[in-house]
Amino acid sequence: MTQVVADVMTPEVSTLGRTTIPRPRAAAPSAFVAPPLAPSSVTVPPAVVPPVADSRPTGSRRGPVWPAVLLDLGLALAVGATAWATGQLPAVAALALAVGWPLMLAGAGRYRHQALGQARSARVSVLAWSGIRAAVLALALAPWLGHADVTGLVAGVAALTVASGVPFLAGRRPRRPRVVLAGRSRDVRDLVAALEASGTHEVVAACLTRTAKEPLGGLPTYVGFASASEIAHRHGADAVVVLPGARLSPPEVRRLHWSLAGVGAELYLGTGLLDVEPTRTRVLSDSGLDVMHVRQPVLHGPRRVVKDVVERAFALVALVLALPLLAVLAVAIRRETPGPALFRQERIGRDGVPFTMLKLRSMGIDAEAVRDGLAAENEKDEVLFKIAQDPRITPLGRRLRKFSLDELPQLWNVVRGDMSLVGPRPALPSEVARYDIDPQRRLVVKPGVTGLWQVSGRSDLSWAESVRLDIKYVDNWSLRLDLSILVRTVRAVLGHHGAY
């Protein structure tokens, strides 16, 4: 069975698409014989590759799972004993709850080692779903558990779920998976930079197609892939990631998989896809044709209608509630500097249709006129124009921007249908005039009051990063993603990150 994994390294820096090939169950001698290593930038001491496919090196890199099992079993026994001692559950029900809980967690995958790209929230969701399944199972078996009280059973399951989650959430962050990258030097260099920025994985070595013209920092590098399994063993790697440019033939990939099984490491194959969520992919195999199918993004249909209706209704309610605050801010703006309180600016909406975007004025009325004189002080690249200490911003305007209060009038743009609550960054006509192929993708949906670009750094982002995040949002849109961005927007606004 082949499993597809394709996820985003947070905070929204890079995507590592890969196909996970499971380790074979039966032990078998390795059919992939590793020739002597050919290091290109570093020499490591010799190591012994275990000759048996399923044998693991002494002192496994991943660590034992028994401490977690024993901890959950101890918590389950404590909760069961307490429920029995207080009379909430009969002895049979308390014992079944204590013994069944670790088994339920084991079946849900709680004790499996962390996979590459697995978020910490995934472990929490395992606990939550285990609690729900355990509650349903307990209610179904209640008549055979000494006529246990339904309320007591549900309370016991809830207590177990919380008790098992507290040590995990309060404990230290799990160790980062250690990986060996295999591919062209430029691909490896780009991915190393992305993984270092995300801090989610540790690259311990690289296998290159040819000797690198420039060294990859202090990273141990080797030429060729035949000894990848031995390299993974020497550097204590959890996995080898083969990038698309490696050009390994199918038989070579299969043999590499066999040899990695002998050293306790997994194999991941890069897909070459950029910012594609796993929910949009699946592997198909038919008559010798093994391919990955990527679903088209959702740009139309019922879910888009739901998004539009819900956002307009929410924006209308929020705008009515915010009217007193808007009135106070409008008066304060007029008293600080002459001119209107509202700032109107033409922006480009869906399908390139222009509209007038509203904001509370945070600059002087001559801001647009003096912009050309500040061109030399622009701190951004290419299309964007941003200055951290912009002299055009008024003292009150700086406070408004700090808490994003200047964007409140955009709720009216949402009600009108010009904008969405969540969407790509609304672009100026001058920016759109300089768009090449990729940025044009932003214009297939409505721009948003907030978006993935805002919760990932706002004004601190470069032009390229802003474009990439907007395209990622467009292509992977879902109602769940919108909800996640709205929650993160609250944190971004309260934290004032990139607000200027």
Plain-language structure description:
With 500 residues, this protein is of the alpha/beta class. The chain has 3 domains: 3-63 and 177-294, 3-Layer(aba) Sandwich (Rossmann fold); 66-112 and 118-170, no CATH class; 302-495, no CATH class. The chain has 16 helices and 13 strands. The strands form 4 sheets. A 7-stranded mixed beta sheet has the order 1-2-7-6-3-4-5, with helices on both faces. Strands 8-9 form a two-stranded antiparallel sheet. A hairpin with a 4-residue loop joins strand 1 and strand 2 (14-21). It starts with a strand and ends in a 5-residue tail after the last helix. It is found in: Membrane. Belongs to the bacterial sugar transferase family. Keywords: Membrane, Transferase, Transmembrane, Transmembrane helix. GO terms for molecular function: phosphotransferase activity, for other substituted phosphate groups. Residues 307-494 form the Bacterial sugar transferase domain.
